[in-house]
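Let us walk through a complete example step by step. Step one is to write down the protein sequence. Step two is to encode the small molecule, zinc ion, as a SMILES string so that its atoms and bonds are unambiguous. Step three, shown after the inputs, is the structure prediction itself.
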Amino acid sequence: MKLYNTLTRQTEEFVPHEAGKVGMYTCGPTVYNFAHIGNLRTYLMEDVLEKYLRYAGYEVKRVMNITDIGHLSDDADSGEDKMLLGAKREHKSVLELAKFYTDAFFADCEKLNIKRPDVVQPATGCVEEFIRVISELEKKGFAYKAGGNVYFDTSKVRQYHVFFNFKEDDLEEGVREGVDKDENKRNKNDFVLWFTKSKFEDQALKWDSPWGVGYPGWHIECSCIAMKNLGEYVDIHCGGIDNVFPHHTNEIAQSEAYLGHPWCKYWFHVLHLNTSGGKMSKSSGGFLTLSKLQEEGRSPMEYRFFCLLSHYRKSLVYSEDTFENAANAYRKLKSRALAVPAEGEIDAAAFKQYKERFCEAMDADLNTSSAITVLYDVLKAKELNGATKRALVSDFDRVLSLDLLKEEEKAAPAAGLSDAEIEEKIAARAAAKKAKNYAEADRIRAELAQQGIVLTDTPSGTTFARK
Ligand SMILES: [Zn+2]
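Step three: the predicted structure of the complex.
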């Protein structure tokens, strides 16, 4: 299998450290708010990678952290703690907040058929490990104390900017506008390994440490949790592209300083989900969650299909139209798959031939849209009988996880609107659309969706189905 490696900026043959086994690490969510669908795109594509590795015969162990402490509002260790801000906003304790949003995150993952990683480790459960590793870094001369905090000394590593050939001066030390410079730092890219109470008096969760009562920095979490569960070598480290700097750069610096050898060979980064207004982010306010999509009558499987149609290394633009097209295509694809009769014997030679084409697509740096083309070809193929088609769809769906052969649960007949009443609503929605009153059109769609009535726009008009 060939994978693009952000570290070498090349597509490379994937060769794990130990034959047949893959240690995979995923940066998990900071649980201070709902995940937006852009965050979920990253987890979804990582899920496809994990499932394809298993499908290809590897034994995979996947580890994910949950950041419930130490992630400041700026990735470069400045500002307030995101968890603390969230707790204040929602009048919850930090732990209540973490539990609530961890559950919400995994509920979203389940709806999207994203498999739960083998190990899920909240940072608050690993503080002893952080202290042990930081002490070791201090002993080896990679850490120093200043102003009550412990910093990682980036001047001590041979090469700090491993991802790109940045000149030091090109980078504004990862400090965003409006954030004060940290005067304690010896070098501008140094980052905090351990904060003490001297800096954040109101931090809710604190632990005793050799450097005083305090809490760990965000970056050290991932290194320690990965090493604790996967040993000294990680095969694939995943994350969103915005984690490349400073987060992953810092992870590599401290892990390799601690281990004394290269740590992780392949870096897999998923690009952003953009809206017409730019990158979807929590700080910009109005972000789309999976629940909001569902309220609008969209299904999680439609979103999964929408993501799989694009390559993970391309920015994906979300708009009503692009989503609607994908959603319609998904519903048609699924009904075509379900309509295939289970007749005849599986043709082993034909099965193998199509499976090879599917693997060829996935082996080419996880080309999911080509893999879906193979799926369409299977459904179209005149030479394949029903049994072979169904077997192939079911086989590919082990990776794609689109529930293509899963019958929808039939809801009890709606006691609500009659067909004529629904048609009336559809006419009102069409009129609203024509008058460019999209808010009203969306409201009508959502109102019907709440009653289990799903609309599909086709070139010849809108049809409806009761779920
Ligand atoms: Zn991380």
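Step four is interpretation. The pocket of zinc ion is lined by residues 27, 222, 247 (CB under 6 Å).
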